[in-house]
Amino acid sequence: MKRNLQLLRRKFFDIVIIGGGAFGACAARDAAMRGLSVALVEKKDFCGGTSANSFKMIHGGIRYIQHADIVRIKQSCRERSALLRTAPHLVQPLPIVIPTYGYGKSSKMFLGAGMLLYDILTLGRNRGIKDPNRKISWSKFLDKEEVLKLFPGIEKDGLTGAAVFEDGQMYNPPRLVLSYIQSAFQHGAVVANYAEAIEFIKSGNKIEGVWVKDRLNRGVYNVRANTVLLAAGPWSESILKQSIHTPEINQGAYSRDACFVIKRRATHKYALAVQGRTHDPDAVLSRPARHLFVVPWRDYQLVGVWHVVYRRDPDQVSLQEDELSEFVDEINTCYPNFNISSEDISICNAGLVPFGENDEGDKNLSYGKRSRLIDHAREHGIQGLVTLIGIRYTTARGDAARAVNIIAKKLKKGLKRPSTASTPVYGGGISNIDKLIHEAKAENIYGLPDEVMKALVRNYGTKYGHVLKEIDNDRELGETIGNSFVLKAEILHAIRHEMAVNLDDIVFRRTDLATGFHPGNAAIALCARLAGRELGWSVDEIREQIANVENGFIKIEPSD
User: Fold this and answer.
1) Average pLDDT over residues 423-435
2) Which spans in 143-233 are helix H?
3) Which pLDDT band, with edges at 50, 70 and 90, does 365 fall under?
């Protein structure tokens, strides 16, 4: 993939998509697979916002049992299954343990009834999933001794055992979004990062495209299209207010969802759900409190999620010291044996998602229910514009399909809907991920460590060999960077084939350098030198690129 804003300017498209997160990327893939001519523009880098900062969970909808919301249960399960089918290198099952206590709403009987109902409602959850290690198991129970062996520090008073269900977990959220972008590109979409949509092109009450600012070369281009899909997440309302001046467009409620990476390896594969300090006011059958999760992920553990009503600029998402202390105190109170301090946190992730109607400062928060899909012709009399503000990474594929359905109908094109729920994403044509990893290790002619080969397969799927080709011309590129499993070859591959144009694109979203912790100044400097040599950066530009990477880590601000 190469940035080609001149092609964006010259061509007339069926649809131009604003936003390169999970929802925009899925929409681009869906529309391109239908045969529509597609442009996608993203003001920063692909998956540079909320999608990159998620808790890495693929929710199958079991929580909606509490809400008696059968539609959301089936939708979430369907989307989880689609991800396990189409991106088996990037999504896997995650068993989650919920301890049970005494009688009533925390008992085995109560939880067991809910999980049995969920299993029945989702009987088709493994349909079409070839890899046996990607199938979602039936719910089950553990006895008290089994639970204490896994989690010796949980509350023992009244403990009767645990219920276990499986959800999904992403190996690498940014690379999953990138695989959708690459799939769209393969089907003819023209995509560009650092291309900011600054204003709609209007003719009367019809939107005919967007003015796009090239944030690298500072030119302004018009990208013309029959329709526009706005999929810019929490930035969407501000774009609408600036461009169409419709008083009915109100800023929705958003939650700053925060979670943390703990540099501590789990001893087993099970996640733990513990009851936090808040409850769900919307639940029909609510348990005593919402759950916080301690989750094994790669060589780390994840802790979250904490929700805070957020009404500030989405470009300025941050955490304050007192909030971090409160989060640490809550998880240590709920699960004392975990015993973490703020120093144990290696990475803070925070992003904005649509939420229910809440007042700032509320503790028991109402979750958002569904993605917002607005046909502006119907709602505001504005032709050629559809807005999709997604609520969960899990539902991106399905919600994007709904948005493209509306647009295809407007275009009066009787196109067959693509099988995006079964067609593998770029690199995802894998029948058995463990077998592919074994083959990659066996065919390793470069003498690379097994863990490096495993990481390549997990991140690139069937396309891992494209990275290795870089080593053929320069054996030095087979060396790893710092203490990571990241090859020097991945830096050049990201620039030459994956549209990485800045250092933070490489460090945060194309490679694993900053996946679980700050890789260290020496590793970042080495990466900057490799990228600078390829992209022709001056010494001052390299220094600026390194500073931008440091600013890319979520900031912990002093308390007000």
Assistant:
1) 97
2) 144-150, 173-186
3) very low
Relative orientation angle of helices 70-86 and 108-121, to the nearest 10 degrees: 70
Please give the class, per CATH, of domain 433-557: mainly alpha
Q: Which of the listed CATH numbers 1.10.540.10, 3.30.9.10, 3.30.70.1450, 3.40.50.150 matches domain 76-168+253-354?
A: 3.30.9.10
What is the structure's pLDDT at 369? 61
The DSSP line for 74-142 is: HHHHHHHHHHHHH-TTTEEEEEEEEEEESSGGGSHHHHHHHHHHHHHHTTTTTTT---GGGSPPPPEEE
The pTM for the full model equals 0.93
Determine the CATH number of domain 5-50+174-252+370-410.
Answer: 3.50.50.60
As a whole number, mean pLDDT of residues 312-338 equals 85
Count of other CB atoms within 10 angstroms of residue 443: 11
Section 22-46 average pLDDT = 97
Q: Is 149 helix (H, G, I), strand (E, B) or coil?
A: helix
% of the chain beyond a pLDDT of 90: 67
Residue type, 121: L
* Residue type at position 384: G
CA dist., res. 51 & res. 56, Å (int): 9
Distant-in-sequence, close-in-space partners of 472: CB < 8 Å, separation ≥ 6? none
Q: What pLDDT is stored for residue 153 in this prediction?
A: 83
Distance CA 277, CA 191 (A): 44
Judged by average pLDDT, the poorest of 236-240, 424-428, 537-541 is 236-240
Question: Domain residues of the chain, as ranges?
Answer: 5-50+174-252+370-410, 76-168+253-354, 433-557
pLDDT at 507 exceeding the cut of 60: yes
CB atoms within 10 A of CB 359: 8
